[in-house]
Amino acid sequence: MSVDSVGDAEIAKPSQPLEDLSIELRGIAKSFKGVPAVHSVDLSVRKGEFFALLGPSGCGKTTLLRMIAGFEFPDRGEIRLQGRDVANVPPNERPVNMVFQHYALFPHLTVSDNIAFGLRMRRLPKDEVARRVREGLEIVQLVGMEGRYPHQLSGGQQQRVALARAVVNRPEVLLLDEPMAALDEKLRKSMRAELKELQHRIGISFIYVTHDQGEALELADRIAVMEKGKVMQIGTPQEIYESPRSTFVADFVGVSNLLQGKVVEAEQLLGESNGARRRIAVDVEGVGRVAAFTDHALEPGAAVVLSLRPERIHLSASPVGELENRVASKVERAIFLGSDVHYRLKLASGRVLLAQSIYSPLRRVRREGERIFLQWRAEDASVLPE
Q1: 3-state SS class at 40
Q2: Which run of H or of E encompasses 355?
Q3: pLDDT at 3 exceeding the cut of 70
Q4: Which end of the chain is more exposed for a tag (fewer CB within 10 A), N or C?
Q5: Are 301 and 262 in contact, with CB atoms under 8 Å apart?
Q6: Rounded to the nearest 10 degrees, what angle do helices 126-139 and 185-202 cross at?
Q7: CA-to-CA distance for 43 and 4, rounded, in angstroms?
Q8: Which residues lie across from 326 on neighbouring strands?
Q9: How far apart are the first and last CA of the chain?
Q10: Residue-wise pLDDT tens digits, 292-333
Q11: Using CA atoms, how far apart are residues 371 and 315, in angstroms rounded to an integer?
């Protein structure tokens, strides 16, 4: 896998040949009234891949999706679908379909007629339309509901109709703009599993826009994290979570303790298990000296940020020998959430760290005010140049 640089971000590109790609974006940029919305984005989506665009509101992810769909034209750059540049081609001439946040179903049409709408606009034969509508109903498991109207359906069923309407047109790529935003939390969770199963069944590429990190981590094969119109990092959910390449990614995806400090020692390791990674010692304000590993060329005096996930912190009444980093603390708050327990832990310096542990009846919940040690391995923190 090769790595290209976009701004300060490192972007992982797939090494597949061009015929294995559904979409390639090359240097895509867009401004509105002189205000940049998308900055020189490069990314590729593989055939049959579930690809998520993740970021906060206003980061440019929906604008990027709309440019792929053809509802917006880029100021510069290429959008290659099936190897053809369609950056200035109208939406109806692109092999894509889009599912919107509010589904955009026709209230006066039945489920069947909503699904058939695009097919009829293309003037397909009646028997072909009927056959594809039946297929669409089977794919989204709505057989028997074809005569109902949108107001007679639940939110999840309306979403399925919108998906079926898009799928029956047999697009090369299906674009989804926060399609679960209007659903309640319980329904969103059940629909995630259904959507992933649907994508596996039909085997086409999905590009999914969301601000919900849980959705992106659960659904996507790969994720592009965006901030202020730029792609900050592309990777698998595990790569994004375990190896963030910037403080923004570390803070936005999941929860992380971000610890600022300065490198005080650095050594080169050549062992097989660590490759060419450096073991470093960092003086962290309010915590003390901690050990970490990095693949950055950092020398003593370099300012860094350590990203330490709460679940990586081990809590114990006394120090555990094999865990290199340790600091004394006091439990400020314990939050029992059923499957796990979240802690706010106050250090002697006054600094607060977050920790998380899986709940077990065999392991008691720490009491507020209890004094405990926080410990973690050198490998457990990601080192980010400041």
Answers
A1: strand
A2: strand 352-358
A3: no
A4: N
A5: yes
A6: 130
A7: 10
A8: 375
A9: 26
A10: 998 888 889 999 999 999 999 999 888 777 778 999 999 999
A11: 10
